[in-house]
Amino acid sequence: MIMHLQLLKNQKIDLEEEMIRGLTQIPWERVDVSFQKSRQRYIAHNTIQVKRYWLNSDGADVVFHIIDCFLL
User: Fold this and answer.
1) Fewer CB within 10 A of the terminal residue: the chain, N end or C end?
2) For a pLDDT cut of 70, what percent of the chain falls above it?
3) The organism sits in which domain of life (predicted)?
């Protein structure tokens, strides 16, 4: 059982490392977002992720903008 758990942990680490390697090979563009007039400005990362629409709805416009500008 311990060996099985260790194997799963190693597989997870390998997957995370592969994801990081892939992400470092693509170009990134910085996007500044201002929630200055929003009550959600102090939790900006959660707002952008729109984890709960009723709570983080101010971030929906950010998500739609990123989708509109996404290039493959």
Assistant:
1) C
2) 83
3) Eukaryota
Report in angstroms the alpha-carbon separations of 56 from 29, 36, 45, 65.
23, 14, 10, 16
Structure tokens at 58: 């101010």
Distance CA 28, CA 31 (A): 10
Residues of the chain with pLDDT under 50: none
The backbone region for 38, taken as left when phi is positive above 0, alpha when psi lies in -120 to 50, beta otherwise, is: beta
pLDDT, tens digit (0-9, with 9 covering 90-100), for 41-50: 777 777 888 8
Is-contact 26 44, C-beta < 8 A? Answer: no
